[in-house]
Automatic annotation (TrEMBL):
Oligomeric and partner information: Homodimer.
GO cellular component terms given for this protein: cytoplasm; ribosome
Residues annotated as binding ATP: 35, 39, 81, 86, 94, 101-102, 122-127, 173, 323
UniProt similarity note: Belongs to the heat shock protein 90 family.
Protein name per its UniProtKB record: Chaperone protein HtpG
GO molecular function, one term: ATP-dependent protein folding chaperone
């Protein structure tokens, strides 16, 4: 390990970020203070925890407070905290590289101008906002570990920084900002006071500005609901979620049994995972009597709830609970169950009381509900109730729940039907709805394979079977459901036998069976999967871009359709064109099923068909 002055290059992404930061607009600049204060508070939170769990912490008596020192003469602002500090390796790791892919994506979009700078705090790169106001940043830091050496990190925000060992520092971090000419206001007390109040009102430690305390420390979640204003809630949300906007939903509750806890949860306005920023980290912090036990706890809530931000505080938790014991602690399970259950109930209530807002929620966060319904067995029933779908009978863009569907069912209808397709238009243009339309039965539209997966896992809902409309063996089980038999000019049984036998031969290994359909009204033919339904195969095709993933099909033909009758006539005349026509009927049915077919074969066949038609 080197101990002298070392000059190091910033990682490419950080250089890009600094470029943007340095040229940021004045109106954006003040958020730098929030970022530095929030880092300081995090570092002290860690010290508090280490001390409570009996770790050996250097300079154990330092009061846990953040000090801001503003000097209008030297145009400097110093932000200091007695937090855990960093040793040399940590310093280089934390303030020279970016590990999280989401942060890299964020920087890329910032550079393209398609992302708002204010979100910087949510992407783990908040420290660099210091360069919005400073043309030189010096950071002195000493780790809490008794054996560690102090260090000075320094940079002017261009391509590189220096690190050097520095003796005689006390524990924690001190950041000296040499303010740029256009940012000298940030050495003025009144400016700083205003910014602390605006952005950092909920820091759980005293913030001292030139020796004077400028914030009130409070754990909002422990207060009584009716003593808290909306503004306070929103400010608190902004603080804990590093957000600049207001939350979409808020849930504040306490419970005594089966476990004593207080919780304040928020659903943000936006889903960053949705925007392609990579997987979200959990957003709920675990406290015991206002002491942070675990930040962004992975164990306290199910994985699908990672979009929720907030706090859970339970006095029953032992302070020294470790990561390992967390996972299998019965207490943690109890908290998990209580909070998840309450949150699910809350969403259900919101869906009823504020359907429009719930729709906004579902549009953005529905992916998590579906993920939970697929993976979280314990809460599947509640989660499925929160899922929303369009259906044949809803207007485009309007949603219903499975419960709505069941309520609207005719008495004699025994099952809930659903069909999968990439869009409403594609589903409605396809042949799968024909029989349902003719019988006046509603069909739920699923868009994603995960929805089909969940419905097939469920098997039934409120005592009704869940049945996919493209299921090969479809028994609508309605009184008076007669077989669709021959109209006047329909093909005879004999002709149908001959035609299906020939089609089976003509299509070879592409089909397992060719039969007469009971479900078609307008389309000449339909394909069904011998393995159940097609939604999984469609997804596999899309993911693997492999046309052969689908396997053979069951082909059903419509005995009343003119095209099928004509096909039979051609076959009877031994016209070789019958083969081409049969293949194209089959391929069309596969396209209508949303499957990807081989375009090369198709194009040649279509030319042959055109040629004949143009004769
Ligand atoms: N005052 C500090 N004391 C100790 N470590 C710090 C301090 N400030 C920053 N760090 C370390 O540097 C890392 C990077 O800080 P940065 O602000 O860029 O991102 P972050 O704190 O991880 O994310 P966010 O800004 O969203 O809180 C932190 O995770 C922390 O490990």
């Amino acid at each position: 390990m080197s101990s002298g002055v070392e000059t190091k290059e910033f990682q490419t992404e950080i250089r890009q970020l600094l470029d943007i930061v340095i040229n940021s607009l004045y109106t954006d600049k003040e958020i730098f203070l929030r970022e530095l204060i929030s880092n300081a508070a995090d570092a002290m939170e860690k010290v508090r925890y280490l001390q409570l769990t009996g770790a050996d912490v250097k300079d154990g008596d330092l009061p846990l407070e953040i000090t801001l020192t503003a000097d209008e003469e030297t145009h400097t602002l110093t932000v200091a905290d007695p937090g855990i500090g960093m040793n040399r390796e940590e310093l280089v790791e934390n303030l020279g590289t970016i590990a999280h892919s989401g942060s890299k994506e964020f920087i890329k979009r910032l550079a393209e101008g398609t992302q708002d700078f204010k979100l910087i705090g949510q992407f783990g790169v908040g420290f660099y906002s210091a360069f919005m106001v400073a043309d030189k940043v010096e950071l002195y830091t000493r780790s809490y570990r008794p054996e560690a050496e102090g260090c000075l990190w320094s940079s002017d925000g261009s391509g590189s920084y220096t690190v050097e060992d520095t003796p005689d520092l006390v524990r924690g971090t001190k950041i000296i900002l040499h303010l740029k000419e256009d940012a000298r206001d940030f050495a003025k007390e009144e400016t700083l006071k205003r910014i602390v109040k605006q952005y950092s009102g909920f820091v759980p430690y005293p913030v001292l500005l030139n020796g004077q305390k400028v914030n009130t420390v409070q754990a909002l979640w422990t207060k009584n609901k009716n003593e808290i204003t909306d503004e306070e809630y929103n400010e608190f949300y902004k603080y804990i979620a590093n957000a600049y906007d207001e939350p979409l939903f808020r849930l504040h509750f306490s419970s005594d049994a089966p476990i004593s806890l207080q919780s304040l949860l928020f659903v943000p306005k936006e889903n960053f995972e949705h925007w392609g920023f990579g997987r979200l980290d959990p957003g709920v912090n675990l406290y015991c009597k206002k002491v942070l036990i675990q930040e962004q706890s992975k164990d306290i809530l199910p994985e699908w709830m990672r979009f929720v931000k907030g706090v859970i505080d339970s006095e029953e938790l032992p302070l020294n609970i470790s990561r390992e014991t967390m996972q299998d602690s019965a207490l943690v399970q109890k908290i998990n169950k209580a909070v998840t259950g309450r949150f699910l109930k809350f969403l259900d209530e919101q869906a009823k009381s504020e359907p429009e807002k719930y729709k906004e929620f579902y549009d953005k966060f529905g992916v998590f509900i579906k993920e939970g319904a697929a993976n979280d067995f314990g809460h599947r029933n509640e989660l499925v109730k929160l899922m929303r779908f369009e259906s044949m009978k809803t207007e485009a863009g309007k949603f219903i729940s499975l419960s709505d569907y069941v309520q609207n069912m005719a008495e004699e209808q025994k099952a809930v039907y659903y069909v999968n397709g990439p869009s409403r238009e594609v589903i409605e243009a396809g042949p799968y709805l024909e029989i349902f339309r003719s019988k006046g039965l509603d069909v739920i539209y699923t868009r994603e394979a995960i929805e089909d997966y969940v419905l097939s896992l469920m098997g039934e809902f409120e005592g009704k079977k869940l049945i996919s409309a493209d299921q090969a063996e479809l028994d609508l089980d309605l009184p008076g459901q007669e077989e669709k038999t021959e109209g006047e000019e329909s093909l005879s049984e004999e002709a149908l036998n001959a035609l299906t036998a020939w089609l089976k031969e003509a299509l070879g290994s592409k089909v397992t069976e060719v039969r007469v359909s009971k479900r078609l009204a307008d389309s000449p033919a339909i394909v069904l999967s011998p393995y159940g339904t097609y939604s999984m195969q469609r997804m596999m095709q899309l993911v693997n871009r492999d046309l052969n993933q689908v396997g053979p099909a069951i082909l059903e033909i419509n005995r009343n359709h003119p095209l099928i009758k004509r096909l039979y006539a051609l076959h009877e005349q031994n016209d070789p064109f019958a083969q081409t026509a049969a293949e194209q009927v089959f391929e069309n049915a596969r396209i209508a099923a949303g499957l990807i077919v081989d375009p090369r074969e198709m194009v040649n066949r279509l030319y042959a068909i055109l040629e004949r038609a143009l004769k």
